[in-house]
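Two proteins follow. First one:
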Amino acid sequence: VQLQASGGGLVQAGGSLSVSCAASGRIFSPNTMAWYRQAPGKQREFVATITSDGRTNYADSVKGRFTISRDNAKNTVYLQMNSLKPEDTAVYYCNLMVPVRAENYWGQGTLVTVSS
């Protein structure tokens, strides 16, 4: 399984940006797709997750500003980021987990930079 993230870039504070991640290969369901991020000098942290049946969960720091969604037919997960803050600057990584098979995959990351 491979995960390919795209859509990062530079945006001003208060702006919006969307990132996506397409999974390819032999993908089993049910699975959970998620976004994590890692800011310079910090540990990777959880951002949001969505299950195969659409249940979502968010980190408190992004609730109300970020929206995670997925297209199961395309094996793609999206993250719509609104009201961006400089502290949202990080490399955003997508993750695919298949709990029943103990499988866990990571994408290569895409950089999001929010200028003040």
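Second one, unrelated to the first:
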Amino acid sequence: QVQLVESGGGLVQPGGSLRLSCAASGIIFRPNTMNWYRQAPGKGRELVASATSSGSTNYADSVKGRFTISRDNAKNTVLLQMNSLKPEDTAVYYCNLRCPDDQYWGQGTQVTVSS
């Protein structure tokens, strides 16, 4: 059974930075894509950034130029470096692993951007 464990959320002032980390354990098939989603109160879950096992990355327009996703295939980890944070980035952030025949979710980590 694949498990995803996230860490790195917290409270930060506008303009600050946070780094989220997600570690996947278990038998993980490739190709796959590791994603970060977020869900703000009263809103749907939004795809923030993606990184494929072949090295491609993709970002939501709202975070381009501020967030950077990176992954280590050998360690099955994915990071999300978040810079220039805004109050509208406040949400629960979820790690997601999408494999050929299944997908898995982390438990979520809260990110709050507030002065």
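SUMMARY FIELD: The radius of gyration is 13 Å. DSSP finds no helices and eleven strands in the chain.
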